[in-house]
Amino acid sequence: MSALLSTRALSKSFAGLRAVHEVDLDLAPGEIRALIGPNGAGKTTLVSMLIGRIAPTSGAILFEGRDITRLPAHARVRLGMAYTFQITSVFARLDVAENVGLAARRRLGGDRAAVARETALVLERVGLAGHADALAGDLSYGHQRLLELAMGLAQAPRLLILDEPTQGLAEGEIEAFKRLIREVAAEATILLIEHNMSVVMALADRITVLDFGEVLAEGSPAGIHASAAVQAAYLGTGADA
Amino acid sequence: MNARILALHGGLLALLLVLHFVLPVYHHGNLARIMVLACYAIGYNLLFGYTGLLSLGHAMFFAAGMYGMGMPFHHLGLGAELAFLAGIGTAGALALVVGLLALRTLGVAFMIVTLMFSQAFYLMILLAARWTRGDEGLVLAGADRVLFGLDLTDPDIRYLLALGLFALCLSAALWLVRRPFGRVLVAIRENPERAELLGYDIFRHKLAAVVVSGMFSGAAGAAYGLMFGYVGASFAEVHFSIFPLLWVLLGGAGTVIGPFFGVLFMFYLIDISSGLTPAYMLIAGVALVLLTLFAPQGLAGEVRRRWLRWLP
Fold first, then answer.
1. CB proximity list for B47: less than 8 A, separation 6 or greater
2. CA-based nearest residue to B189, from B53, B45, B43
3. Contact criterion met (CB < 8 Å) for B190 and A77
């Protein structure tokens, strides 16, 4: 199996605090991988290094076998990685269609018709078609999360990194989100940071558990579910409890 | 292009052409100056209004255009056409160098760094007095000021050439901000981190914006020197960096048409108030404060907010 994305001994320290420590991760093409762990486990730090928002202290990141550890974020995005923010980061004063248009235009260039078509298609998919002319900042929080997702999809990435995408979504929206992610998984590999365990269990092919910046466990949803070590990390019980 | 946008901007140009035939001499001359300065404001606005970079040193680009035109014109006898292009080239080259260095900073630091470069440029003009004649400046001989056979000392020709340059700058800016490149500049202004993570190289886009903005400013400076026959160090002083900021704020940052109205408004505000009282700066100041209070997005920005959301 040749991995789409790999990390080797990837580490990040902030002023002596070990946020991520020697993480080896391999994402197979086409899989949905969930990254879980208690608050402060280093999940967001890890994916921030993957996309290039922060530089690792040591270790390497490979995308399709190519070392991208030193590439700036925009160059990684051009290689086919996309990232949606944990704290919603849309262009609040631009309309929804232009938000998605900016995401699509980098790939499609100056072809206005193609960009408009792709924008309409993506907005339809996430269920924001009726809001195309609204200012992104006027959308409800849940809709802004969907817009984040739409901006990710419009880039047609090969690897889509979703940082807590269902945070703030209503129950009904979460069901629609699960359906959408299953569709997207046919075209892209997905790395999903998620707290909502029902979403993780329903979607993930494999789960990686991070605790204190290290990989605590990795395996199938059923295996992780049964793991005593994971329960200990989450619930604070002793490993033998 | 959208018919409304074409009608509005084309309408302004047509109106300015009609005014050429009906305006009294005094206002005719003023408007020619205003149109050239509006090109400077349009250039400034591309960086400030669209890209979100506040420069306090644009006088150096205006002056680089002016001296880049005036020195070879005066000393080497270069023709007006080539001298004008040399002015734009000088401003563009300076903008590239300054951009490469200043864009390592953000926000307030960017303002200070551009201000410092501009002051250094001003002092250089004074120190190179042997060629620039320092404070005194260069007076360009009227007999040589001929562009494509047109006599630049003739006020009618001056007005029409100013209109031509303004039309060129206005259409170029309109074209630029509606292209993908211009859209990315707006995205950088709104949320640079997001724009980077959509795969856009922020630094290169900003650098391109600085260079284009510098070339617009340089074109205005070169034209101003050619048309009015004077190249002086006062155009490199700090107040000439503040003017475009005020013009753009008053006219509407991030609108294509706003800078023209900003220059027009400010020009006549000072013109009229100085006719009323020696304390004219007080009147100008109060008017500016009122405008910032009641139309914080500038004239065209306010029009866009209230009525014309499609205004580019």
1. B53, B55, B209, B210, B213
2. B53
3. no
Q: Using CA atoms, how far apart are residues B50 and B189, in angstroms rounded to an integer?
A: 7
Kindly report, residue by residue over B62-104, the tens digit of the pLDDT. 999 999 999 999 999 888 899 999 999 999 999 999 999 999 9
pLDDT tens for B55-64 read: 999 999 999 9
Angle CA(B285)–CA(B290)–CA(B294) in degrees, nearest 5? 155
**Residue B250 vs residues B38, B189, B215, B253, B287: alpha-carbon distances, Å:** 12, 19, 22, 8, 10
Annotated domain spans of chain B = 11-237
The helix/strand/coil state of A157 is coil
CB-based contact A155 B198, cutoff 8 Å: yes
Q: Which residue is it, tokens 């035939």?
A: B21
One-character DSSP codes across B229-276? TEE-GGGGSTHHHHHHHHHHHHH-TT-SSHHHHHHHHHHHHHHHHHHH
The answer to whether A142 and A169 are in contact (CB under 8 A) is yes
The answer to whether B73 and B140 are in contact (CB under 8 A) is yes
At A140, the amino acid letter reads: S
Residue A89 distance to chain B (closest CA, Å) = 7
**Domains delineated in chain A:** 1-80+159-240 (3.40.50.300), 89-156 (no CATH)
Total-model pTM: 0.90
DSSP A90-105: --TTSBHHHHHHHHHH
What would the two tokens of residue B102 be?
């200043």
Bridge partners of residue A6, in order along the sequence: A26, A62
For residue B13, is it left (φ>0), alpha (ψ between -120 and 50) or beta? alpha
Are the Cβ atoms of B179 and A77 closer than 8 angstroms?
no
Nearest-CB residue to B190 (from A83, A94, A109): A94
ipTM, interface predicted TM-score of the complex:
0.88
Q: Which residues are within 8 A (CB) of B259 and not within 5 positions of it... i.e. 6 or more apart?
A: B38, B41, B42, B44, B45, B244, B247, B248, B251, B252
Which of A49, A131, A55, A52 is closest to A90 using CA atoms?
A131
DSSP state of B141: P
Q: How far apart are CA B199 and CA B201, in angstroms?
A: 7
